Amino acid sequence: DSGVTQTPKHLITATGQRVTLRCSPRSGDLSVYWYQQSLDQGLQFLIQYYNGEERAKGNILERFSAQQFPDLHSELNLSSLELGDSALYFCASSAIDRGINGYTFGSGTRLTVV
Amino acid sequence: GENVEQHPSTLSVQEGDSAVIKCTYSDSASNYFPWYKQELGKRPQLIIDIRSNVGEKKDQRIAVTLNKTAKHFSLHITETQPEDSAVYFCAASISGQAGTALIFGKGTTLSVSS
């Protein structure tokens, strides 16, 4: 167990639907990052939150949004889902405020859009 | 923004041989370069990292070298073993800044045959 918890592990949904992925960072980590991993696309950075505030944005679609709550858990909302959104979504956390730049990844949520 | 290129995309070696994976980055401000190993169906895990004030770092059979002038860094695995088979990702970021996320290369699938 890495200390980063992602739920659910698997999600199957239909096109046009909306889903919410949840992430609880490792205890004490203030930074949360969301990545999308598709076949042959590596790890694509979506968005970062630090202590409740959005800090960096990557290639995140307008149909996607995220937030980090006061207890530091984060949610990634994916709406108007398309077949191409099927992927493994990883959350990671780090303790940048303590000079620790390495990420700890969760086990991921596998999203299948049918 | 940062862009990380990684080569080769696949690498096959015999057990006991060495393996080298190379990455280049675009943002000269980047100063933190980690490597992650992802086994099939599992989360990426940090295996080694290097900062820009260091040219080389070793950890048992794994070493990473960095050439800041040329903006490239490499992962070297010696005496490869079948359990080294996995996808390896390089990444780059600016350490110490809460608003900078790791940008990953597209990964190298390493296969070690016995």
Count, helices of chain B: 0
Helix content of chain B: under 10%
Q: So what's the overall shape of chain B?
A: globular
The pair of chains with the biggest contact is: A-B, 28 and 24 residues
CA gyration radius of chain B, whole angstroms: 14 Å
End-to-end Cα distance of chain B, whole Å, is 41 Å
Structural class of chain A: mainly beta
Q: For the residues shown, what is the average pLDDT of chain A?
A: 93
Give the oligomer, counting copies of the same chain as homo and different chains as hetero. Answer: heterodimer
Global morphology of chain A: globular
Give the helix level of chain A as a range of percent: under 10%
Major β-sheet annotation of chain B: 6 strands, mixed
What is the H/E string of chain A? EEEEEEEEEEE
Q: Can you walk through the features of this model?
A:
The complex is a heterodimer of chains A (114) and B (114). With 114 residues, chain A is mainly β. In chain A, the strands form 2 sheets. In chain A, strands 2, 4, 5, 6, 9, 10 and 11 form a 7-stranded mixed sheet that branches. In chain A, strands 1-3-8-7 form a 4-stranded antiparallel sheet, with no helix packed on it. Chain A has strands at 5-7, 10-13, 19-24, 31-37, 43-50, 53-57, 64-68, 74-78, 87-95, 100-105, 109-113. With 114 residues, chain B is mostly beta strands. Chain B has no helices and 11 strands. In chain B, the strands form 2 sheets. In chain B, strands 2, 4, 5, 9, 10 and 11 form a 6-stranded mixed sheet that branches. The chains are: A mainly beta (114), B mainly beta (114). At the A-B interface, strand 4, strand 5 and strand 10 of A face strand 5 and strand 10 of B.
Write the layout of secondary structure elements.
The complex is a heterodimer of chains A (114) and B (114).
Chain A: E1 5-7, E2 10-13, E3 19-24, E4 31-37, E5 43-50, E6 53-57, E7 64-68, E8 74-78, E9 87-95, E10 100-105, E11 109-113
Parallel strand pairs in A: 2-11
Antiparallel strand pairs in A: 1-3, 3-8, 4-5, 4-9, 5-6, 7-8, 9-10, 9-11
Chain B: E1 4-7, E2 10-14, E3 19-25, E4 32-38, E5 45-51, E6 56-59, E7 62-67, E8 72-77, E9 86-92, E10 103-104, E11 108-113
